[in-house]
């Protein structure tokens, strides 16, 4: 299609829908297209397919299918988790603990409620989370894998602390919410990871675009954030988009089957990338702690360059990468919020995120470093 | 696939995705799958496709593309219209005028805000709308075609009255919102129809499932109902589901090209259905004013039958129809809110909705009446 050989290293931005997922969706568009709420046999058949898809999703988290709510994607799931928990609690001014690395779907929601005085928010570094919890805290929100720099947060340990806190204080709060959209290669079992709410997004995990899920543990109080028909057990109204929901289930079956192998492969690729960078004359530093990051994301600072220039220049040579989160590109200056948040403000506008996926190979990485050298070497 | 010849007369519940729509979406799943916010050429190319899709949608309403916001479907659009307008207005206790026939996405949203005292709602018959408007009224909401009985409301005339009211009172309020999910066969041009906000849903118009749009006229104040990235000009965050958005554009191009012809054809089919019913021994009445209803919906009351029994019995014989809105089936008793709203409470649980679409033929209708006769004749 292109005159150059394009190399896609922007998997954290979005992934292609896998062939298996596409195939699983196919018959639900125009053949078994029925409304799953309909009571004739064809409708009930479709309802069973939604049930199966829900079970597949639950299989990825090792949780009960009833705890899965289908949404339109990560943004809606995050909004529902945050707003839903705050709206459902009976406190006058609930308190939320949030890391400085949260996705805008979380941080912008919190900032809005903070600005109107409806809630109090403690914006903290991950290591400060446990110390920030107080009696009014209803929610702790921790992005599992930061979408810009790939840092992995110790969700399991934070969850363990929170569970003990709730037990010791004889309270149902705080809940632990984690955005796991970028965490498909990491441990995610609900029992062991100790989260109460969790978000996944189809478009980041080789699933369909326009669908996601919110895991809600039993007895966790979450108000719906929209109103309408009684779908999704009253938690999220609107006729279920059957093909998307089926595709999400399929994507998570694939993700589960391949995660360990992919973790290892992507980690090797990342190490290879670092080796090549080190062997080159490129003056760079890695943003974030490389030992505590997801194998599919590497974010590097190249002093003196402009992120925007670099991404455009690389793009013209067929290398697709990003300055940070794609969703901020339209509105804001090309600046990484997460790079700033880790204290490397001088790097916020001089960084590039490369993110790897199923098609990424050593050959591609070699070419990317070579291309990078052409204008920063 | 089935041992009997199934007849689908539940198009108001959901439509199959058309072949053209499916084809238009195809390459955006796994080939041109890029994030439209990305600044490399492949991403910008996808952004252009979204722009084209927005223009196609605008073509259906004869409005500017900038006035179209993509959503996950009718329910989200309706929630955004209602909550967005209420949240954006500066009044202490805004007033809303709503017909008694609104879709639950509207009526449930209003009831919730009414129950907490945040707003005042006048629930009225369509003819009472103009008289119910007062200085505090920020929104008038009128479902264009009722999804259960097919009644068409005089949106154009109500809009004309509201425009004059705003002009005479030198105020920007009230806005007129209309749910047009079932109104694809009717006049919908923005200029002549005088609405300020309008909802369409992909899954009701042979488009993809999981996508819809909200039309918002210039200068109409609507707060976003979720927070996150700055997509959709800051009005609706979340990475755009490109295939769905492209498919929605295609569906509306098809709908525009076929609407006049389909209006005529469906009206003939409906008349034929009525003729056959009249010629049969079935004791029935039509719910709603047949002369003021969409050609694709007919809702009949058969005294003494149970809606649920009828829909199941017909379903077992291969005729797919509905007792009312599908979305209420899971939660509520099989009862039509709209049939009750027109004062035929005795018919609320004894009515059946048949809704026609592209594949509906005279032969199908003949068979349906024959099937109906088998157990109510």
What would you say this structure looks like, in words?
- The structure is a homodimer of 377-residue chains.
- With 377 residues, chain A is of the alpha/beta class.
- The first copy, chain A, contains 11 helices and 12 strands.
- Chain A has a 7-stranded mixed β-sheet with strand order 2-8-7-6-5-3-4, with helices on both faces.
- In chain A, α2 packs parallel to α8 and α3 packs parallel to α4.
- The longest helix of chain A is centred in the C-terminal third of the chain and has 38 residues.
- Chain A starts with 6 loop residues before the first strand and ends with a helix.
- Chains A and B meet through α1, α2, α3, α4 and α8 of A and α1, α2, α3, α4 and α8 of B.
- By secondary-structure content and strand pairing, the structural class of chain A works out as alpha/beta
Order of helices and strands of chain A: EHHEHEHEHEHEHEEHEEHEHEH
Looking at the structure, what is the overall shape of chain A?
globular
Strand content of chain A: 5-15%
Report, as a whole number of angstroms, the end-to-end distance of chain A: 30 Å
Largest sheet descriptor of chain A: 7 strands, mixed
Oligomer: homodimer
Can you count the beta strands of chain A? Answer: 12
**Poorly predicted runs of chain A:** none
Helix proportion of chain A: 25-40%
Give the neighbour order of strands across the main sheet of chain A: 2-8-7-6-5-3-4
What is the average of the pLDDT values of chain A?
94
| C-alpha Rg of chain A (nearest Å) | 21 Å
